Amino acid sequence: MTLRNRVSVAAAVGVLIVVAAVSSLLYFFYAASLHSRVDAALVDAAQQASSIATRIKQSAVGSQSKPDVNKPVTVGSVQVQLFPGPVAAGQPTPFGPLNKGDVAVAEHDQPAYFANARDGGQQVRVYNRRPPHRPGRWAGTHQPGRERR
Questions:
Q1: How many angstroms separate the CA atoms of 72 and 29, rounded?
Q2: Residue 6 has pLDDT above 90, yes or no
Q3: The pLDDT of residue 50
Q4: How many CA atoms lie within 13 A of 33 on its CB side?
Q5: Under 8 Å CB-to-CB from 81, ≥6 apart: which residues?
Q6: What's the gap between Cα 77 and its chain centre?
Q7: What are phi and psi of 70, to 5 degrees?
Q8: Is the N or C terminus of the chain more exposed, i.e. has fewer CB atoms within 10 Å?
Q9: Is the distance from CB of 59 to CB of 65 less than 8 angstroms?
């Protein structure tokens, strides 16, 4: 192999490494930006959990049926699911049963947290928290179709 060929191959490899590094950095910056926007929407929806539960109960006033606060409610592009009564590990959610960590959040033993989950083969971003001043209750929010990593 001539010197000219070796220099050409070395230059091509160098360009490949630079392009790969820049692409990786851009991907991670974009992912972080996407997470921050989605996370802000999830937190905002979760902060409305108490007023959502109140509106559901008020809408059932005068009705013979008992309001179902456990059904997911859509707020903008975010779905909110409330568990108004005492929560226990094993209670069903769209992403599988509640675990000990979720119960610890409801009991205010652990802080709220974000997680990635799957719903029907699609990855979604989930935020789990306890509604303020409501020990033993749990609110989970998720934004379907927004998180793709």
A1: 32
A2: yes
A3: 73
A4: 6
A5: 70, 71, 72, 73, 93, 94, 139, 140, 141, 142
A6: 12
A7: -80, -15
A8: N
A9: no
Domain locations in the chain?
39-143
**How many whole angstroms separate alpha carbon 146 and alpha carbon 74?**
14
Predicted confidence at residue 34, as pLDDT, reads 83
In angstroms, what CA-CA distances link 149 with 20, 34, 125?
18, 10, 10
Kind and range of the H or E element at 114? strand 113-119
Classify 98 as helix, strand or coil.
coil
Residue 142, both tokens: 């998720």
Take residue 7 and report the two structure tokens written for it.
């220099």
Q: What is the pLDDT of residues 122-134, one digit of tens each?
A: 778 888 887 665 5
Is the CATH number 3.30.465 carried by domain 39-143? yes
DSSP string, 86-141: ---TT---TTS---HHHHHHHTTSS--EEEEEEETTEEEEEEEEPPTT-TT-EEEE
Q: Is 120 left (phi over 0), alpha (psi -120 to 50) or beta?
A: left
Q: Please list, in sequence order, all residues whose beta carbon lies within 8 angstroms of the beta carbon of residue 71, skipping any fewer than 6 positions away.
A: 81
Convert the pLDDT of each residue in 29-56 to its tens digit.
998 888 888 888 888 888 777 777 777 7
